[in-house]
Amino acid sequence: MRFAVLFLIFVVVIPDLFAQIFRVERIGTEQGLSQGSVYAMLKDSRGFLWFGTQDGLNRYDGHNFKVYYSDPDQPRGLHGSFVNSMLEAPNGDLWIGTDYGLNLYRRQSDDFVYFPTKNAKTPEACTPFAVDQQFVWYWSEEEGILKMDYVKKKKQLILAGVSHNLGLLAVSNATKFGKDGKLWVCLSKGLMQFDTATRETRYFFSNHPQNQLGNATTVLKALHAQDGLVYLSHSLGITVFNPQLNIFKNFTNLNQIDLREVYDLAEAPDGDIWIATGGNGLLRYSKEGNVQQFLHKKNDSNSLSNNTITTVYVSNDGLVWANPDPLGINLLVASGNKFRSIKYVSEAPNALNDPNVRTLLAVDKTHLWVGTEQGGINVWNKQSGQIEDYITHHPSKDKSIPSQSIYHLLRDQQGQIWVATYNGLSRYTGGGHNFENFFLTKPQNIGENIIRCLSEWDPNHLLVGTENGLYIFDKIRKTFIQVKGLEGVNILWVDCTDDGKIWLTRFNESAWKGTIHENQWRAEECILSGGNALSLLKDLRRKCYWIATNVGLLQYKNGKVMQKFSTKDGLGNAYVYGLLLDQQQNIWLSTNRGLSSFNPESKKFRNYQMNDGLQGYEFNNRSYLVDNEGYFYFGGTNGFTFFRPSEVRTNTFQPQIQLTELEINDQPANIGSYIGETKSLILPFDQNTLSLSYVALDYLSNGKNRYQYRLVGLEDAWHETENAFVRYVRVPHGQYVFEVKAANGDGFWSDAIYRLNLTIAPPFWQTWWFILINVVGVAALGMVLFRLRIRQLELRQRERLDLVVRTQEAERKQLATELHDDLGMRLSTLQMYLSEIDMVQNSRVSKLRPILEDAIMDIRNLLQDLNPKLLFEYGLRVAVEDLGEKLNVMDTLRFELLWFDFPEKLPEAIEINLFRIVQELVSNTLKHAKANSITLQFLQRDDQWVILYEDNGCGFEMKPFSSGFGLQNIENRVRLLKGNLYFDTAPLKGVHATIEIPYQKNANL
After folding, report:
1. Where are the beta strands (DSSP E) in 280-430?
2. Number of folded domains that form the chain
3. Which of 159, 173, 469, 565 has its CA 20 to 30 A from that of 394?
4. What is the pLDDT of residue 16?
């Protein structure tokens, strides 16, 4: 179908009126582009625009450029200044073709890998044209067509001898894989179709002997369109080729537009073809067969920078990027849903002859009168969009308007048109440029005839505001009557309402509401003191008036100002000129900084500026109008803007966010990867002052983005700002998530939130392992100190026990000595005396002798207990054996001693204590146990000396804190020896005692 339409283009002339309106933005070296000749363009999967120039590679985010210049001396730098082609790999890396060879831009590390040509000493141009997860296909000026396995870094020559020299018209090779899967190789003349599987070849538009179709042509660009057609650009125009039908058609013009030197072609997502020419600007050929031409216009910033377009690229969002070589980039944005403006263009035909539009009036369905500051009345034709007539002052013609300065145009209830000028009042009488003029004073007194504003008071009278007071103009008598009370006052604005009230502004003084009675001004209320009111709008729905002033928008209701809205409420600028109400009951305001719309219900403003298509930033008072078709008009200092409010839709594009820079402690971060590709970041505790730069990838809003950000974990509330930068100082250690989102130029917030997981590691003294070590260390230290304290207490206790034991032993020895030396001696002497008495003669003496002998024996036994000489002379074993022999003498008790690898000799202190322990155990058995058997074992086990004592007596019940003195004595002596004592006993089960004494080396020495 497209091919058939192409043939019909030259039979039917398509009108040059094209429905789609475009906004043109100029982006050049002033905005940061490295160089003005752009020969390669690419929008990547992240949303960045990349531009290859004659001097480096540029990355653009809609706000700023980042430039990568050629630096062959750096291993990871870009090799080659002239970037001619770009291709994105599936992983997001970019393959870059330059005049120096092939480069791979690695996104994660933000650097380059260079792949030299066969002869690295004489680098040649390369053009990559296809890539997948493993292979990249590229054309080399030196080697031909190659396929490289960039994973294994091995390349394979596919076709040799197919290279041709590049030039200013062909900066890259147009070789591509076509829609048919075959390789279409661009030769020095024509194309070669190459089947990579069968290696079959076909030639078209070539000088090859096997050429199948067309004359030999130097192809600059081969565009394989979605519909299967191949568009070939060349110095003579465009050739449209159908490979399936093997037919073609050459075109040297479109819609009578010369197509010589077509440098580039691009297809938009909607199927439109964009054509870059070498002198006729940029053309858009729609799939319906319409042609639209974009040209450079003098003094019109909303036009191409020049008419030589070398490169054109259409991104996946439908934006058109063109290079008006060498003036950088022109971005074309479809903006038909916003505003259209008629701007002043110096010396342009059929255009405004003066930029300053003071007043507007729709005289019929087709024509709009545009009153200007110095150019009279410009008659604009709505259908053609051009100025078709100029109504100006001619001194020699009495019926011309009296001045070139037009301040107010008014149509009264009778349909008469009145004109307020710098030199009097005029009424349009029809018949071309015929007017009837009226003056306050004689015509030569020009300064006294400055009329600023008009208002219809009643069907027969106008109110005329001048720089010298307010006048009533009688339409019937055609006379001026000065209003008393306002003589000499500069009246800037006057308006009448249905209730007979008159509203007026005394220039830069005040605004008032009042009445006129018998030509006398009667002021009723001061609406605004010390300022200017410029427009009045009646709001029937809300039963109020809206007043435009130089300090904002006022709502007037029930005889007083109810509300005031200014910049703090979202209004773009506080100096408001005109007010219009649309069908949705929104108020449109012209200001000193663009247009604004206001929703009185939500009390929210939307502000529009030049990049939305306005004539300029500044508008004028009395220069606003709504016509019968619902178009709104606002005049300003560079023309006028018109639109239908229902067609001004909110831009719902959701900009994505990218991080662009990171500084840590106010120094560029060195985190081992590019911050824009980093999803999580772990930093030491002392690297906790962070500066993050981010950007909204938005090419529609012309930099008018707003941002919201927060650091989750540190703050919950969002912070809103225009700045694409945030700094956090001394962030405490912890885990955080940095979140940021953006709004487009219309204030529409994106749902997408960029998140960076951030961990600030704690200082080592606050880490869990350090805390654990400290806890364990403190606990261990506590245990050590506790044990030391216990040992100290035990030592003290042992010292006290030792002192007690030594004291006891000393007392025993002392007592034994005293008993032996004193009582024993006396008993022995008494025995000697008794032995000399005749026992027969004295029966009493005979009875006394056995008692004395028992006493002496008891004394000896007591002395043995108090001071066991056998223990001191022969050691523990002998002493215990002696104790056993004495027990075995008794018929009622059997004592058994077992000695297993126990030292024969121990230090005296140990032996004394062990012996006393055995004595105490035996004594308890004899006194309480009613036992007939005692077993005593001495043995050495592991690193302990063990004494096992057992009797078969009645036993006893162990109760805490109820041990008798004997048991306490045993426990004290065991503790003194640093040993352990264990009792196993119960009533009727005998007594089993185990005593463990730590083994002491050389204890038997």
Report:
1. 282-285, 291-294, 311-314, 320-323, 329-334, 340-343, 357-362, 367-372, 377-381, 386-391, 406-411, 417-421, 424-430
2. 5
3. 469
4. 41
Residue 661 has pLDDT above 70, yes or no: yes
The enclosing domain of 995 has a CATH number of 3.30.565.10
462 is a domain residue:
yes
The average confidence (pLDDT) of the chain is: 88
- Identify whether the C-beta of residue 156 lies closer than 8 Å to the C-beta of residue 144: no
- Picking from 531, 562, 584, the residue at the C-terminal end of a domain is 531
- Residue 56 sits in the same domain as residue 103: yes
Residue 357, SS3? strand
Q: What range does the domain containing 804 cover?
A: 767-867
Band of pLDDT at residue 908, cut at 50, 70 and 90 = confident
Q: What is residue 440's three-state secondary structure?
A: coil
Are 756 and 771 members of one domain? no
d(CA 99, CA 107): 22
Q: How far is CA 516 from CA 120, 290, 394, 521, 683, in A?
A: 93, 61, 37, 5, 77
Same-domain check for residues 713 and 812: no
Task: Please say which residue of 742, 760, 778 terminates a domain.
Answer: 760
Whether residue 499 lies inside any domain: the answer is yes
* Domain CATH code at residue 731: 2.60.40.10
The answer to whether the predicted template modeling score (pTM) of the entire model surpasses 0.85 is: no
Let me know: does 502 contact 494? Beta carbons within 8 Å. yes
Confidence of residue 760 (pLDDT cuts 50, 70, 90): very high
Considering only CA atoms, which of 919, 918, 917, 925 is closest in space to residue 970? 917
Cβ pair 98, 64 in contact under 8 A: no
C-beta atoms surrounding 808 within 10 Å: 15
Same domain, 908 and 963: yes
Q: Give the DSSP letter string of 645-699.
A: GGG--------EEEEEEEEETTEE---SS-GGG-SEEEE-TT---EEEEEEEE-S
- 177 and 212, same domain (yes or no): yes
Give the whole-angstrom CA distance, residue 904 versus residue 876: 7
- Encoded amino acid at 222, one letter: A
SS3 label, residue 105: strand
Three-state secondary-structure class, residue 211? strand
789 and 906 belong to one structural domain: no
Q: Identify the pLDDT of residue 782.
A: 82
Query: For residue 372, is it within any domain?
Result: no
pLDDT exceeds 50 at position 11: no
Q: Rounded to whole angstroms, what are the CA distances from 871 to 317, 365, 911?
A: 111, 142, 8
Same domain, 707 and 816: no
Provide the 3-class DSSP secondary structure of residue 427.
strand
- DSSP string over 574-589: S-EEEEEE-TTS-EEE
**Burial tier of 952 (Cβ tally within 10 Å: 0-12, 13-18, 19+):** middle
- Contact 622/633 with Cβ under 8 angstroms? no
Give a yes or no: residue 226 inside a domain: yes
- Angle (CA) 329 335 340, round 5°: 110
- DSSP helix, strand, coil percent of the chain (3-state; round to 5): 20, 40, 40
